[in-house]
Amino acid sequence: MSSFKNVVDLWERLLEIMSCISCQDCLALKHLLPRFPSIHAAPDKTTEPMTYSKTSSWRKIRSFILWSPFIQVFKKHRYPWIQLAGHQGNFHAGEAGSVLKKLDPREQLCFQRLMADPLKDFVPEYRGDVEKNGETYIQLQDLLASFSHPCVMDVKMGVRTYLEAELEKARRSPTLRKDMYQKMVEVDSNAPTAAEHEQRAVTKPRYMQWRDQMSSSTELGFRVEGIKKTDGSSTKDFKKTKSRENIVDILSSFVANNETIVRKYIKRLKEIMAVQESSEFFRSHEVIGSSLLFVHDAEENVGVWMIDFGKTEKLPSGSSLDHRTQWQEGNREDGYLFGLDSLISILEEVHTGLSSSSV
C-alpha cells in the first residue's frame, strides 16, 4: 500500500511540474524537484521500506518520469531530438505523451494527409492543434515516451535540403544573408567566392547547396545531423562528414557496436521503405529537409520515424516522383529513397563487421 501511495504522490508532483513548465515558473519547479524520492536515498525509518525489482511498476514509472522529455524540457530547455535539429524555440511540452510544435501550415497539411496514408505508422501521430500563449501549435506524439535513457540520432534524408521553388525565388529577388556567410567561413574560410567575401554575405540557396555538397547529402543521399547519447552528451559536429567510411564509424559508435540494435534498425528501415514505395502520399510529394529519427535504449528497444515536413510540397496533379532518379533542376526529385538505399547498405556493412568480430 505504501508503494502505491508513493506512486500516486509522484504523479501528483509530476502534474505540479507540468503546471510549472507551462507557466515557465522555474523557481517553483526548483522547489518541487527535491520532493521526488531517489532510489539511492536512505529509507525513511518511520515508514515501511519500499522494495521493488528491476521490472517493478514503481521503477518503470520513476524511469519514465525522470527520463521523459517533459523533465528534459526543464533540465535542457529542449527535447533530445530538438537539440539535435537546432529548432528548440518551436517546441513546448504538451499533454502527457505529446509535444507541441509551432504550427506551419504546410507541415500541418502533411500530417493531416499522412494520418490517412499507410505511412501513418512511421510518423508521429498528429493529435490536432493547440492554442498556447497566443500561438498555435500542432500536437504530436512524443516518440521518446516509451524509451528508458534513450540514444537519439537525427538523419536528414535526400540529396538536397532546399526546394526548387527556393532557387527560383532567389534568382528573382536574391536576399543576401550575412549569418549564413559567417556559418560558411567558420567551417571553411575558402568556401565563399571573392565576391561573397567582399559583400560578406551569401544567398540561402547558395549556402544550402554548399552545405549539402560538403556533407554526405549529395553523394550518399543523407547526412547525420546530430547524435545524443544516453548520458545526455550530444554531438552535431558532422558538417564535413562525407565519406562512407566515416559514416560507418559514426553509426557503429551510435549503436555502441550492438549487433541486435543494428539488426532491428535495418528491419525497421526496410519496413519504412516498403511502405514508402507504395504510399500515395510519398509518391505525390517532394520531400525536402525531412529527417529519420533513430531511437534506442539499453534494453534494445528500437524505433525509427519520419519527422519534419515543413518543406514537403505536394506535386501538381498527375505528377509523381520515384525518389531515386538523379535530381536535375525541374524534375523535383529529392533522392530520399536513394539515400535510404545507402543508409540501409551502410548499416548492413556495420552489422556484417560486428557479426564477423563476434565469431
TrEMBL record:
UniProt-listed Enzyme Commission number(s): 2.7.-.-
A molecular function GO annotation: ATP binding
Domain of life: Eukaryota
GO term, biological process aspect, one: inositol phosphate biosynthetic process
A family per Pfam: IPK
Record has Nucleotide-binding as a keyword: yes
Keywords noted in UniProt: ATP-binding, Kinase, Nucleotide-binding, Transferase
Annotated InterPro entries: IPK (IPR005522), IPK_sf (IPR038286)
EC top class named in words: transferase
GO cellular component, one term: cytoplasm
Similarity comment: family membership: Belongs to the inositol phosphokinase (IPK) family.
Name of the protein described by the UniProt record: Kinase
